[in-house]
């Protein structure tokens, strides 16, 4: 896969490059803590959409350039670019195909997604980290939903993601009171996978990425799908979904390799197919 669109420095950019089966996506606007412009959000949609049908990929890594992960959508730039307020209905027409589509893709893509977070993860940046399958953060990273401080209601999936991850009471603290949450608390609450000291951060990220990329990709994707389905399903519905997913995963080469490795008492060598 080629690099993301070559955007101007003021607009920022989203770059993507492959390392084996891992697609590394970088939010690149460090002068603004990687806050997302319209162009960056569209680039994310395009890169993730392409990745969804690239069967040679095994895992996705999303990170921010510089000292921060992402300070959210750049509402200041969006609302003052031409000195005019957006027309009525602009958000309703645009956002489902832009910011909200990014969250949906990260949550549903049939590949494991890992976000590595330094510094701030705020607004859409926070929700991007929450939507990922795994988020590893430095111990001094901060997660923040600043919507009340800005005078508007939450978006980008925060009202769906937070209650499921940390419960309604803590979600209220973050969304209604605007409480900032440090990475250590975020990990203790189950909001993210791990908080790591700065000295161990890169190793923790790379070890987890390698483990995901070496896994049975089809089974991982189907398990991810079943977890998402089960959030709004009954037990019976989830059991039925698991049955269909099991039928599919048992037909993969990785399933046969897993059985053979078990018989031979060795570590399986999955190929992602």
From TrEMBL:
<dbReference type="GO" id="GO:0003824">
    <property type="term" value="F:catalytic activity"/>
</dbReference>
<dbReference type="InterPro" id="IPR001753">
    <property type="entry name" value="Enoyl-CoA_hydra/iso"/>
</dbReference>
<protein>
    <submittedName>
        <fullName>Enoyl-CoA hydratase</fullName>
    </submittedName>
</protein>
<dbReference type="InterPro" id="IPR029045">
    <property type="entry name" value="ClpP/crotonase-like_dom_sf"/>
</dbReference>
<dbReference type="InterPro" id="IPR014748">
    <property type="entry name" value="Enoyl-CoA_hydra_C"/>
</dbReference>
<dbReference type="Pfam" id="PF00378">
    <property type="entry name" value="ECH_1"/>
</dbReference>
<comment type="similarity">
    <text>Belongs to the enoyl-CoA hydratase/isomerase family.</text>
</comment>
């Amino acid at each position: 896969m080629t690099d993301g669109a070559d955007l101007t420095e003021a607009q920022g950019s989203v770059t993507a490059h492959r390392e084996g089966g891992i697609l590394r996506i970088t939010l690149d606007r460090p002068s603004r803590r990687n806050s997302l412009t319209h162009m960056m959000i569209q680039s994310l949609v395009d890169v993730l959409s392409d990745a969804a049908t690239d069967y040679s990929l095994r895992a996705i890594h999303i990170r921010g350039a510089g000292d921060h992960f992402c300070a959210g959508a750049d509402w200041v730039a969006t609302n003052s670019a031409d000195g005019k307020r957006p027309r009525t209905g602009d958000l309703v027409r645009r956002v489902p195909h832009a910011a909200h589509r990014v969250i949906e893709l990260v949550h549903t893509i049939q590949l494991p997604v890992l976000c590595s977070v330094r510094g701030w993860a705020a607004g859409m940046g926070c929700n991007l980290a929450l939507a990922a399958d795994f988020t590893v953060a430095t111990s001094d990273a901060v997660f923040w939903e600043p919507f009340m401080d800005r005078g508007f209601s939450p978006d980008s999936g925060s009202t769906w993601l937070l209650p499921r991850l940390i419960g309604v009471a803590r979600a209220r603290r973050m969304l209604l009171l605007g409480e900032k949450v440090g990475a250590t608390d975020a990990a203790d609450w189950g909001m993210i996978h791990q908080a790591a000291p700065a000295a161990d951060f890169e190793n923790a990220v790379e070890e987890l990425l390698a483990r995901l990329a070496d896994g049975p990709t089809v089974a991982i994707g189907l398990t991810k799908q079943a977890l998402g389905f089960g959030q709004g399903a009954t037990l019976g519905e989830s059991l039925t979904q698991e049955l269909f997913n099991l039928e599919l995963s048992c037909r993969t080469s990785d399933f046969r390799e897993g059985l053979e490795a078990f018989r031979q008492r060795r570590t399986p060598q999955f190929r992602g197919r």
